[in-house]
């Protein structure tokens, strides 16, 4: 049996199984995230939320999915058909393939590559294409506005995300995500790099176009932004992509700052719980904060958004990066890796 | 891990200091809320002078693992570049006030451009060469478009940028061919590898041709000169003045060093090319300038011609030839800066004038300006005892010594043709009807024009220090 | 075998999409093909063992440069029919130059021999067991630090240039000063008053902030003298 998994066909089967083992829970989690969001928002607003389909409304996501599948996919007559259909697939596909490098436990990742952080960064920087192509291919003013807003926003916040990642990786000395988590055995990076943690999280909100930075789809001004012409499954793919991206961003926050699968303290009651559970619990915490923010803050104005990105986060993260590097060098704490 | 002493990093101190000054002035200008153009310009001139002192006191050697070389050649070029940049900033002071270009970025860009030119002067690796060149060019593109509200200026900047990018592409292509066929980008290793010219592969020669083409664009030699008249005319005049002096010096120095050090053994291969380019530039420079009525365009063609003369020295391929090139460059910088100071002084009721005919009768309304311009024109025409004559003298002697008789003869003939349009300006100033007087000229222009005129006139009395320095610098390349 | 196959697949797509960049009729399609070309180039880097370069290529070119490019192409309504007219006109000349270059290159390359060792050092260059990124870092920050810093200066110049040539401070744009907004006191904006019942506020006019610093006037353009007068009346009336 073990020999079989070393033949090229065996490796292929194994990879497919591994991929399924990651993707299926992610998709399920995504489905229930939509429900959780509605429930949490309802709780914040003193409502009940969906409670009709199944016990406590637990089958609501499936009802939604069936509804989406049943509807007609409308392609506007002026739209560029190929790109119009490509955009949602791209958004969803990118959100899923990023999971290839996420380590759920020590060494439990589909691909344990040396440049894991860069891979994640690259994939997340591609997310903008789905939106910009959707906006352009729709051949509609609102969609194009939404796409422009979102593209500018994502490119701006990527810069500070990049600096935050660089700060983390000079503390780790490696671009491998497994090493990033293992480097947090003594203390999670959210403690020494607390300001960067905050910047990363807020930039993550902007990067996923979530409230209070959801100007790309700001339904009160530009109806639904880049998604305005989409319906049925194409819309559902955007929706899936957005929520998968939220989970991905939470996973990145967990890995970079919250110690991944590591328990908070390596002592008795904590280390009884297996690593993957810690990982999931931390992701859920981050997702809760995502929703909490949505229920609490009003939407940013566009100039405020740009100001925050370029004039506050960028200089601050740059200064903190230099500061961190300086401290590491002068205290001799620089990780020495081959 | 890094052993800083083996890097010899102190060799680049002038460049480092100048960049730090530039960034400091940039920050100061951005944070200082009030009008800061004049103050920033003054600080920039101060920084250039400090850098010049550092260049003089810096030691020679090879630093940064062979990327950077300091020798008397680079020192000579750097001093010349620093002086002409300082003159460029001084010349711009008054113009910027009048034309509403008072922006502190102007001196900062000139300083960064100067850093690029100093890197070019010291380049001993094809990568350093390219980065220095690009730093210099990029700053010039921006400067050419600096008067962004004027269509002409924006057009000049854009045109220069597009063609410059093409030239950079040629250069990079050539560099990649050279690297591919020789396996190194360091000048000294290339020189060793090519010490037997028979072994040079055709790919390498093609690469050298592309490098020469890229650099010829930067010195606006024919057939890569097309941008020159338009860009000279469209760019704000102080920028034209700057563009015509320091970058030409640096690019010429780069060409000389690149041809002399790594490809010195391939002299027969590139000599033909340089001779052709030189002849074409001299001919075009003297013939095309005749019909020009705009004095900036005229200066553009004149600069093409001057670059043609300078290339004669390179074509000679000897220390004497390089000495001639260096002396010619010095005389050229001062003539050019002085002429442009005079052109910037051509202002009537607050409006800039650029026509040759606007100069008519200047001798009666402003004898000082007319005298200065006359000196520069005589010098450019190569009439003794002004510097222009001596520059040509050293160049032609070198050509004759190397047996390049044709080149020397064509050079003399084209100087005679060129003398026609230089003398025409003098005729317009001294013998034509007088117009209304120009506006009173500011002290900064008088300073630049005066210094240049004095240098141009009295150089022949004390030629020894300059000739000696040029001799020492040239010896480095052709021992 | 798989690596060779992957190489040919990626290389073929790369060349195909590069050809599409210049031949696509729709400029937006051109940019998208360009992005595809970048991706395949990154994949080739990966195959050659240069994982850092591959990722940086995607992050910088695809994630940032091409996005801005796409932006510009989408916003500018470039008349490609007119451009194509020029293309047709200059096609013969261009083809001729290209042909000459091609022949020259062919002549040049015909005499090119690879060293026998070249094939072995082609992939995964440098020291084994040191990661690609670390190797690059060691070179860039030691041997090539001068070039690295010069490249930084080039970028600085580009940045200054972009700002110099495009930034226009119109002077009449209103800026949000967050600190001032936060520092604002309720006393500056509110007048607390007791009103007798059944009287109404009709006679008092509109109430506006009572005190504003002079430089804040720009931030609150809705204020004018008329309203100040109304306030004064209101206060007076109240006293």
How would you sum up this structure, described in words?
- The complex is a heterotrimer of chains A (338), B (479) and C (239).
- Chain A is an all-alpha fold and 338 residues long.
- Chain A has one domain (67-331).
- Chain A has 12 helices and no strands.
- By secondary structure, chain B is mostly helical.
- Chain B has one domain (9-477).
- In chain B, 75% of the residues lie in helices and 2% in strands.
- Chain B has helices at residues 4-7, 13-31, 37-57, 72-98, 105-122, 126-144, 151-182, 187-193, 202-218, 227-234, 237-260, 267-288, 295-316, 319-344, 362-365, 367-381, 387-401, 405-431, 443-458, 464-477; strands spanning 61-63, 68-70, 347-348, 351-352.
- In chain B, helix 4 runs antiparallel to helix 11.
- Chain C is mainly alpha-helical and 239 residues long.
- The longest helix of chain C is centred in the middle third of the chain and has 31 residues, at 80-110.
- The model of chain C is unreliable at 214-239 (pLDDT under 50).
- Chains in contact: A-C, B-C.
Percent of residues in helices of chain B comes to: over 70%
Q: Approximately how much beta-strand content do the residues of chain A carry? A: under 5%
Determine the number of helices of chain A (DSSP H or I, runs of at least 4 residues).
12
Provide the number of structural domains of chain A: 1
List the keywords.
heterotrimer; A: 338 residues; mainly alpha; globular; B: mainly alpha; two-stranded antiparallel ribbon; 2% strand
Question: Quick recap of the structure?
Answer:
The complex is a heterotrimer of chains A (338), B (479) and C (239). By secondary structure, chain A is mainly α.
Write the layout of secondary structure elements.
The complex is a heterotrimer of chains A (338), B (479) and C (239).
Chain A: H1 8-44, H2 60-70, H3 81-97, H4 116-137, H5 141-172, H6 177-182, H7 194-207, H8 219-222, H9 232-257, H10 268-271, H11 275-296, H12 302-331
Helix pairs in contact in A: 1-9, 1-11, 2-9, 3-4, 3-9, 4-5, 5-7, 5-12, 7-9, 7-12, 9-11
Chain B: H1 4-7, H2 13-31, H3 37-57, E1 61-63, E2 68-70, H4 72-98, H5 105-122, H6 126-144, H7 151-182, H8 187-193, H9 202-218, H10 227-234, H11 237-260, H12 267-288, H13 295-316, H14 319-344, E3 347-348, E4 351-352, H15 362-365, H16 367-381, H17 387-401, H18 405-431, H19 443-458, H20 464-477
Antiparallel strand pairs in B: 1-2, 3-4
Chain C: H1 2-23, H2 27-47, H3 51-75, H4 80-110, H5 118-122, H6 132-141, H7 145-166, H8 178-183, H9 186-189, H10 225-238
């Amino acid at each position: 049996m073990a020999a079989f998994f070393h033949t090229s066909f065996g490796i292929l089967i194994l990879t497919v199984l591994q991929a399924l083992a990651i993707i299926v829970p992610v998709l399920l989690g995504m489905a229930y995230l939509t429900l959780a969001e509605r429930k949490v928002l309802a709780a914040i607003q003193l409502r009940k939320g969906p409670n009709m389909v199944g016990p406590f409304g637990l089958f609501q996501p499936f009802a939604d999915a069936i509804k989406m599948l049943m509807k007609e996919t409308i392609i506007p007559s002026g739209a560029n058909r190929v790109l119009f259909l490509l955009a949602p697939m791209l958004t969803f596909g990118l959100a899923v393939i990023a999971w290839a490098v996420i380590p759920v436990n020590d060494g439990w990742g589909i691909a344990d590559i040396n440049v894991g952080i860069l891979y994640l960064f690259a994939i997340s920087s591609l997310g903008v294409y789905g939106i910009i192509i959707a906006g352009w291919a729709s051949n509609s003013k609102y969609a194009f506005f939404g796409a422009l807003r979102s593209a500018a926003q994502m490119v701006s916040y990527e810069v500070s995300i990049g600096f935050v990642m660089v700060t983390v990786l000079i503390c780790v000395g490696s671009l491998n995500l497994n090493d990033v988590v293992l480097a947090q055995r003594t203390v999670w990076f959210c403690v020494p790099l607390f300001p960067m943690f905050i910047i990363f999280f807020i930039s993550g909100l902007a990067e996923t176009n979530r409230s209070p930075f959801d100007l790309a789809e700001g339904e009160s001004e530009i109806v639904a932004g880049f998604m305005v012409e989409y319906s049925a499954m194409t819309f559902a793919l955007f929706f899936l992509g957005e929520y998968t991206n939220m989970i991905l961003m939470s996973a990145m926050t967990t890995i970079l700052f919250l110690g991944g699968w590591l328990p908070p303290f390596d002592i008795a009651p904590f280390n009884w719980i297996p690593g993957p559970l810690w990982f999931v619990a931390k992701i859920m915490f981050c997702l809760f904060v995502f929703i909490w923010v949505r229920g609490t803050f009003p939407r940013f104005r566009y100039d405020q958004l740009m100001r925050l990105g370029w004039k506050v986060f960028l200089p601050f993260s740059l200064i903190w990066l230099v500061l961190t590097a300086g401290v590491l060098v002068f205290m001799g704490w620089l990780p020495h890796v081959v | 891990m890094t052993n800083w002493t083996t890097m010899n990093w102190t060799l680049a101190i002038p460049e480092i200091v100048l960049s730090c000054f530039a960034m400091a002035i940039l920050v100061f200008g951005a944070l200082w809320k009030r009008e800061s153009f004049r103050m920033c310009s003054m600080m920039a001139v101060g920084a250039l002078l400090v850098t010049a002192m550092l260049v003089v006191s810096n030691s020679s050697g090879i630093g940064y693992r062979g990327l950077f070389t300091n020798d008397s050649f680079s020192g000579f070029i750097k001093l010349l570049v620093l002086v002409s940049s300082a003159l460029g900033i001084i010349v711009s002071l008054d113009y910027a006030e009048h034309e509403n270009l008072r922006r502190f970025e102007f001196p900062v860009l000139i300083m960064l451009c100067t850093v690029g030119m100093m890197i070019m002067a010291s380049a001993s690796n094809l990568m350093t060469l390219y980065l220095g060149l690009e730093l210099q060019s990029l700053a010039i593109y921006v400067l050419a478009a600096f008067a962004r509200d004027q269509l002409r200026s924006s057009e000049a900047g854009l045109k220069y940028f597009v063609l410059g990018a093409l030239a950079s592409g040629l250069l990079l292509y050539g560099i990649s061919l050279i690297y591919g066929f020789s396996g190194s980008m360091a000048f000294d290793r290339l020189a060793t590898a090519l010490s037997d010219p028979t072994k040079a592969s055709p790919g390498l020669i093609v690469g050298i041709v592309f490098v020469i083409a890229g650099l010829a664009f930067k010195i606006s030699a024919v057939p890569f000169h097309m941008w020159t008249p338009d860009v000279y005319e469209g760019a704000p005049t102080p920028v034209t003045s700057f563009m015509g002096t320091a970058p030409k010096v640096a690019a010429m120095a780069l060409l000389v060093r690149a041809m002399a050090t790594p490809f010195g053994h391939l002299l027969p291969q590139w000599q033909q090319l340089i001779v052709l380019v030189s002849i074409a530039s001299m001919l075009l420079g003297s013939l095309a300038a005749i019909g020009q009525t705009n004095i900036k365009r005229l200066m553009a063609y004149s600069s093409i011609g001057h670059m043609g003369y300078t290339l004669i020295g390179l074509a000679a391929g000897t220390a004497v030839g390089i000495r001639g090139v260096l002396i010619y460059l010095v005389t050229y910088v001062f003539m050019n800066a002085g002429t442009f100071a005079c052109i910037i002084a051509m202002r009537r009721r607050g409006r800039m004038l650029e026509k040759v005919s606007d100069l008519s009768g200047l001798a009666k309304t402003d004898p000082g300006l007319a005298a200065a311009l006359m000196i520069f024109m005589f010098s450019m025409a190569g009439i003794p005892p002004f510097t222009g004559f001596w520059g040509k003298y050293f160049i032609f002697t070198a050509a004759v010594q190397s047996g390049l008789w044709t080149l020397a003869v064509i050079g003399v003939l084209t100087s005679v043709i060129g003398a026609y349009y230089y003398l025409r300006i003098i005729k317009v100033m001294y013998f034509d009807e007088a117009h209304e007087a120009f506006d009173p000229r500011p002290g900064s222009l008088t300073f630049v024009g005066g210094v240049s005129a004095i240098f141009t006139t009295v150089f022949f009395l004390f030629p020894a220090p300059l000739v000696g320095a040029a001799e020492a610098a040239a010896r480095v390349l052709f021992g | 075998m798989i690596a060779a196959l992957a190489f040919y697949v990626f290389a073929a797509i790369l060349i195909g999409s590069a050809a599409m960049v210049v031949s696509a009729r729709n400029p937006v399609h051109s940019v998208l093909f360009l992005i595809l070309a970048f991706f395949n180039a990154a994949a080739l880097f990966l195959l050659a063992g240069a994982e850092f370069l591959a990722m940086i290529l995607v992050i910088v070119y695809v994630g940032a440069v091409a996005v801005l490019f796409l932006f510009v192409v989408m916003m500018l309504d470039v008349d490609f029919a007119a451009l194509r007219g020029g293309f047709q006109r200059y096609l013969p000349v261009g083809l001729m130059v290209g042909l000459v270059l091609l022949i020259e290159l062919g002549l040049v390359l015909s005499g090119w021999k690879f060293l026998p060792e070249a094939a072995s050092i082609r992939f995964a260059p440098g020291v084994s067991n040191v990661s690609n990124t670390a190797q690059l870092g060691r070179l860039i920050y030691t041997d090539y630090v001068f070039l690295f810093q010069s490249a930084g200066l080039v970028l600085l110049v580009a940045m200054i240039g972009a700002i110099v040539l495009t930034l226009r401070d119109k002077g009449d744009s209103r800026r949000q000063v967050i600190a001032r907004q936060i520092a604002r006191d309720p006393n500056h904006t509110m007048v607390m008053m007791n009103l007798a019942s059944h009287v109404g506020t009709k006679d008092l006019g509109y109430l506006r902030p009572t005190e504003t610093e002079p430089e804040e006037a720009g931030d609150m353009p809705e204020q004018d003298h008329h309203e100040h007068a109304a306030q004064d009346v209101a206060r007076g009336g109240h006293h």
